[in-house]
From TrEMBL:
Signal peptide (residue range): 1-23
Species name: Paraburkholderia dioscoreae
Pfam families (alphabetical): BON
Domain of life according to the entry: Bacteria
Keyword Signal found: yes
Keywords: Lipoprotein, Signal
Keyword Signal listed: yes
Chain ranges of the BON domain: 54-122
Protein name: Periplasmic or secreted lipoprotein
Length: 125
């Protein structure tokens, strides 16, 4: 019972983060084009502000790649990016979708490595 409560809380938090990231992405898409922005990632940016901007850009590129992939349900996936390392958290309908999401994320601009922490979505939990 306690594990189910912790899992439910974790999924709720992941959903909130995902919605927040999606809202930020949608707002910035109104200003810029919807095409992913390619940025050369040769060295990490020096200032904290530049690092945050780079991380946000990588998150945006991954989100765009996931949502543009036909047949991939990315609605339960949250994306965290830090210095080229992308962490996928949340859930997907099955193992095949989880593997596909990781593969698609790896191919997005600015991604050096993907840490896949996705779980199979179990209805009722």
């Amino acid at each position: 019972m306690k594990s189910a409560v912790v899992q439910t809380i974790t999924l709720c938090v992941a959903s909130i983060i995902s919605v927040s990231v999606f809202a930020q992405t949608a707002a910035s898409d109104d200003i810029a084009s919807s095409a992913p922005v390619s940025a050369a990632v040769s060295a990490p940016p020096s200032s904290a502000k530049a690092r945050r901007a780079q991380n946000h850009l990588v998150q945006k590129n991954v989100r765009h790649a996931l949502t543009a992939t036909k047949g991939l349900n990315s609605s339960g996936i949250s994306i965290l990016a830090k210095n080229g390392v992308v962490t996928l958290v949340g859930s997907a309908p099955d193992e095949k979708q989880i593997a596909r999401a990781a593969s698609v994320a790896q191919g997005a601009a600015g991604v050096q490595r993907v840490d896949n922490k996705l779980k199979v979505f179990e209805p009722g939990n």
